[in-house]
Amino acid sequence: MRAAMALACAVALAGCGADMPAPPRIDGEVDAWLDAREATFDNIVPGTEKRVLWAGETGERTDWAIVYIHGFSASSEELRPIPERLSDALGANVCYTRLAGHGRDSEAMAEPRVEDWLADMAEALAVGERIGERVMLIGTSNGGALTAIATARYPDRVDAAVLISPVFGVPRRGAFLLEWPGARIWLPWVLGPTGGFAPENPDHALYWTESYPTEALVPVQRVIGLAQDAPLNEAEAPALLFYSPDDKVVSPEAIRTQMAEWGAPVTTVEIPAQEGMDPSNHVLAGDILSPALTEPVTQRILDWVAGL
Q1: Among residues 92, 102, 86, which one has the least CA distance to residue 128?
Q2: Which residues contact 176 (CB under 8 A, 6 or more apart)?
Q3: What integer pLDDT is reported at residue 215 of this predicted model?
Q4: Which helix (H) or strand (E) segment is 69 a member of?
Q5: What range(s) does the AB hydrolase-1 domain occupy (predicted)?
Q6: Residues forming beta bridges with residue 135, ordered by sequence position
Q7: What are 123-180's pLDDT values in tens digits?
Q8: Can you name the residues that pair with 268 across neighbouring β-strands?
Q9: Using alpha carbons only, what angle is made at residue 248 by residues 245 and 251, rounded to the nearest 5 degrees?
């Protein structure tokens, strides 16, 4: 019996390996490409779709392409209006992606596997290459970890990386259990059937998924594991890191540890808890949760880009 259980665990764990696929080839117009993929779903929250905001004429490439990757349970609205302000200042096209399961309903959050998010990240990178000469990835939390993975996996395809509270670890004991075989089955029995949060305001409730099945946490832990194992020393793009030592969602210590391995110059901006900031000290900009930080974070990014 023990031998059978050991074999089952070994088989399950052997299937846990995941890698970011190569960015796909986009045939035809970018807008049509993204629209076709989003047309598969009939319950996407308006304004959270995968899309491109063109700085000039539709289809015209710009020097910089800004690609935004949102965090877990969030959407493209998480950091706005920062990407648009960067676009205005740099004359850059902007790509907003939508990670699988997000921007829909609670049940949809249980659908994606980590491979789906890696594919979304690869697709977003491909869009960035189509719409700009240089690609700047901006990722928050789970999106920050995916940004780190992509930059390490495809160092010659990313020109700048902005990481906001990237999740390289969480301050909760036992989080590693989420990577154990069968976690999607037994997790609801341990943590309860649903997880979530109390929204801070109506837009927070609208553009985030405030309640989700507990098993939706499994791919997040998989991303954390992949980010911890990623060859960050092979990253060639300079990085701008924003994090708070007071973050209540992810581990600041894990952020410092992982980013110390980055293979290119890292500029670090530490943001302490303050008024007008996300009460969790996690989403460190954007008018919905951290309105007081939108302008200073925007300006800090622009100053950094000017020096590249």
Answers
A1: 92
A2: 221
A3: 87
A4: strand 62-69
A5: 65-190
A6: 65
A7: 999 999 999 999 999 999 999 999 999 999 999 999 999 999 999 999 765 556 666 6
A8: 241
A9: 60
Nearest-angstrom CA–CA distance, 293 and 163: 15
Q: Give the integer Cα–Cα distance in Å for 116 and 188.
A: 22
pLDDT confidence bin for 14, thresholds 50/70/90: very low
Q: Residue 180 and residue 159: Cα distance in Å, rounded?
A: 35
pLDDT of amino acid 3: 34
Q: Where are the domains of the chain?
A: 30-306
Q: How many CB atoms lie within 10 A of CB 53?
A: 14
Contact 218, 142 (CB under 8 A): no
3-state secondary structure of 92: coil
Is residue 200 within 8 Å of 289, Cβ to Cβ?
A: yes
Torsions phi, psi for 241 (to 5 deg)? -110, 125
Which pLDDT tens digit goes with each residue over 193-209?
A: 788 999 999 999 999 99
Query: Out of 3.40.50.10190, 3.40.50.1820, 2.40.50.690, 3.30.530.20, which CATH number does the structure's domain 30-306 have?
Result: 3.40.50.1820
Q: How far is 90 from 65, CA to CA, in rounded Å?
A: 9
Instruction: Tell me the pLDDT tens digit for each residue of 258-277.
Output: 999 999 999 999 999 999 99
Q: State the pLDDT at residue 230.
A: 97
Give the number of other Cβ atoms within 10 Å of residue 155's Cβ.
15
Give yes or no for residue 220 having a pLDDT over 60.
Answer: yes
Q: What is the rounded end-to-end Cα distance, in angstroms, of the chain?
A: 60
pLDDT tens digits, one per residue of 108-124: 999 999 999 999 999 99
**H or E stretch including 195?**
strand 194-196
Tokens of 139: 């990722």
- Cα four-point dihedral sign 104, 110, 115, 121: positive
Which pLDDT score, from 0 to 100, does residue 174 have?
54
Helices (H), 92-208: 114-131, 142-153, 183-191, 202-207
